[in-house]
Amino acid sequence: MAQGANGQPLVSFEEFHELFAVPFKYGESEKPWPRSTILLYKYSSKATVKYVDIPENTWIRVDNAIGKHAEIIMIKDLKKIQNHLEEQADYKVGSYKGILSIEVIINYSPDRDCSDKLCTCKKYLDAEIVKQRRDVEIAKQRTNRYEGPADKVRKMSPTTEVERGENIKFKITFSNFYKHIKDIYGPENMEGLTNLLKSDIKLDILTDENRTYFFNAAGLETERQKREKDDKKILQYLKGLAALDQTNIDYLTENYLV
Predict the structure, then answer these.
(1) Distance (Å, rounded) from C-alpha 12 to C-alpha 8?
(2) Which Gene3D superfamilies would you find in this protein's record (predicted)?
(3) Is the pLDDT of residue 152 over 50?
């Protein structure tokens, strides 16, 4: 379960119900839509020296601020991470060491401006892979030019090349469309989301199918989920008793399972 610095969930149940599980229909302007944005993101890389300020494969929470959307704050973080990785001595050695995947969960879909900036971010990261691949190929050609046949054979190992199949994986899952098509800014925002898809940034909706995944990312655990853990223990215990052809209810009560 993901937790913040204080050991609490990254998103509270109150925040989930207020910001993510909004029940209103689009276009119902008489009902106040929440103005707050909560964004969770995590990234991965193949870096040998990690960026400790923002650990990878760990969900990070970002809130919107006055004049700053959460997506823009995240992009600034990602640039810090990428710059750190590019400064490492082994950045141009072997496979690509920079950011390789980014996953985002957010209560509102990006608006047009944020979509454009996210596309630019993806384009920059994709270009870094191409650039490093080109630099490695040039360095290899220069090395081969001044070495004998035996040295060339050793240098042709695939571990010295950037993996050709690598590309940046970027996915955004959101719970509500921000200023939907019925809003005056709707068509512009929809065009921005279309551009995200064209930039190979995958989009998904926070629906029943992946809500459990979000709860795990946010560090939330419902009373039902807590009880299910006990249910699994009970069933496992009963299977053991069945194998021994006996039943002992005292064990269940002594361990507070029933």
Answers:
(1) 8
(2) Cytidine Deaminase, domain 2
(3) no
If you count DSSP H runs as helices and E runs as strands, how many of each does the chain have, helices first? 8, 5
CATH classification of the domain holding 94 = 3.40.140.10
* 150: Cα within 13 Å, side-chain hemisphere: 0
**Same-domain status, 185 and 234:** no
Whether residue 88 sits in one domain with residue 17: yes
Instruction: Output the pTM of the full model.
Output: 0.78
Number of domains present in the structure of the chain: 2
| Strands, E assignment, 145-221 | 169-176, 201-205
- The answer on 116 and 131 residing in a single domain is yes
d(C-alpha 25, C-alpha 21), whole Å: 12
Backbone angles phi, psi at 100, to 5 degrees: -115, -25
Residue-wise burial string across 19-32, b where 16 or more C-beta atoms lie within 10 A, e elsewhere? bbebeeeeeeeeee
N-terminal to C-terminal alpha carbon distance within the chain: 25
Q: Single out the residue of 113, 109, 117 nearest to residue 178, CA to CA.
A: 109
Is residue 184 pLDDT above 60, yes or no? yes
